[in-house]
Design a protein that fits this description.
globular; eight-stranded parallel β-sheet; TIM Barrel; about 400 residues; 12 strands; alpha/beta; two-stranded antiparallel sheet
């Protein structure tokens, strides 16, 4: 586990604090408090897909992608550096499926701890080589495909998650990203194991179908309530059918608070098979245009899932920077346990202003007029986006696993 005063969170905290009022000495805050401070000062940009890039660069479809941190470290490291150079504030380890259940499909279940440790080390090495600051986010996905396996006994599931968590901690991650979970119960078990193992920030993301339900029937509203009660630092939506569906699900999770942020990491649309390859139709420009909608909906953490590339990340980086230049803010609801005048972030220089709810950004229509934020239907009705960039889902299966 990173040492508190030398972690990437401490470094970024110091860098961001130097640009404005410093709320407190870095050593006086926990990693989670630093993370909240960073999110209040600026949105955090996660990287994009790993798996789809690996496939596009010659890795066979049926390869165990998690094993590549040992067998093909140079290609994984190159992708990490490309995302950092594109402007990502955080890069995810190539460990999404590095749990004993998924690895057992390749006879590699005994390597779970080693693969997670090496995945984190490889990401750290890529960051150091790049010469730029970036957080290392330990990626943990579901234990297996919902359609192919039943939920393991809770004790066995906990042990599998703990194995990954400990490996990632040994490798030096700065935070955890639990992603593409389509069932709430195992996600809650994983979060509890992370809290038992350490005090690093936790981002928890679920994936929802076009009916805005997870495979176990969980709604975005119910997921947000349960995840908030579990003590996560950010509630998120990822993967799914593309940016628009993810945005609608994000809105239904409700406004973020000063202690629980919102995160959105959509696919580049649903994949279509063309000449044996999967093709995604939502390009970098479209993702860049979606950033203002994501921020207005309350997201403080944004990024890309399946089908996205460093070009998508660069487009989102430019959009985030442009929003910052215009003083954009997102909606924030006060935490239930906050007093009306208490600081939303430890040591904020203006406690009253920090605790006050912020108003969402107005949506800008194609004609330049402003309309108040509302449901997805109104956002679509203003003509700001071309819906055809999202592939039709007729006949397409719901994505139950992440192809990163």
């Amino acid at each position: 586990m990173p040492v508190a005063d030398t972690s990437s969170l401490a470094s970024l905290f110091a860098a961001v604090s130097s640009a404005g009022a410093r709320p407190a000495a870095p050593g006086s805050l926990t990693e989670r408090e630093r993370f909240r401070f960073l999110l209040r000062r600026r949105p955090l940009l996660l990287d994009g897909a790993m798996g789809t890039l690996l496939y596009s660069r010659g890795i066979p479809q049926r390869t165990c992608l998690d094993e590549l941190v040992l067998t093909k470290p140079e290609i994984v490291s190159t992708i990490h550096r490309e995302y950092i150079e594109a402007g990502a504030d955080a890069i995810e380890t190539n460990t999404f499926g590095a749990n004993r259940f998924r690895l057992a499909e390749y006879g590699l279940e005994k390597l779970a701890g080693r693969l997670n440790r090496r995945g984190a080390q490889l990401a750290r090495e890529a960051r150091e080589t790049s010469g730029r600051e970036a957080l290392i986010a330990g990626s943990i996905g579901p234990l297996g495909h919902t359609s192919r396996m039943a939920m393991p006994h809770p004790g066995i599931a906990r042990a599998a998650f703990r194995e990954q968590i400990e490996g990632l901690l040994e490798g030096g991650v700065d935070l955890f990203v639990f992603e593409t979970f389509d069932r709430l119960e195992p996600l809650l078990l994983a979060i509890e194991e992370a809290h038992r193992a350490c005090s690093l920030p936790v981002i928890a993301q679920m994936t929802f179908g076009e009916d805005l339900c997870a495979n176990d029937g969980t709604s975005p509203e119910a997921a947000a309530a349960a995840l908030t009660a579990a003590g996560v630092d950010a509630v998120g939506v990822n993967c799914g059918a593309g940016p628009l569906v993810c945005l609608e699900a994000l809105v239904k999770t409700g406004l973020p608070t000063a202690t629980v942020a919102r995160c959105i990491v959509p696919n580049a649309g649903l994949p279509q098979r063309v000449e044996g390859n999967f093709v995604y139709s939502a390009g970098p420009e479209y993702f860049g245009e979606m950033v203002s909608q994501m921020l207005a909906a309350g997201a403080r953490i944004v990024g890309g899932c399946c089908g996205t590339t460093p070009d998508h990340t660069a487009a989102m980086r430019a959009a985030i920077d442009a929003a910052a230049d215009h003083g954009a803010a997102t909606a924030v609801a006060p935490s239930p346990d906050e007093s009306e005048s208490g600081p939303a972030t430890p040591g904020d220089s203006n406690p009253e202003a920090a605790a006050a709810p912020r108003t969402p950004l107005p949506e800008i229509s194609a004609s330049g007029g402003a309309t108040p934020p509302s449901g997805l239907a109104r956002k679509l009705a203003d003509g700001s986006f071309v819906i055809s960039v999202e592939p039709p889902a007729n006949g397409a299966p719901r994505l139950a696993s992440k192809w990163r």
